[in-house]
Amino acid sequence: MSEYDAFAAVYDEWTGPIGEDDVDFYVSLAAEAEGPVVELAVGNGRVAVPIAVRTGRRVIGIDVSPAMLAGASERARAAGVELDLRLGDMRELALEERTDLVICPFRSLLHVHGHDERLRVFRGVFDTLSPGGRFAWNAFVFDPEIAAELDGQWREQGGVRHRVDYDHDERRIDLSLEGGPTIPLWWADPAEWDRLVEESGLEVEARYGWFDRSPFDESSREAVYMARKPA
Ligand SMILES: C[S@@+](CC[C@H](N)C(=O)[O-])C[C@H]1O[C@@H](n2cnc3c(N)ncnc32)[C@H](O)[C@@H]1O
Question: Where exactly are the structural domains of the chain?
Answer without folding.
Answer: 3-141+188-228
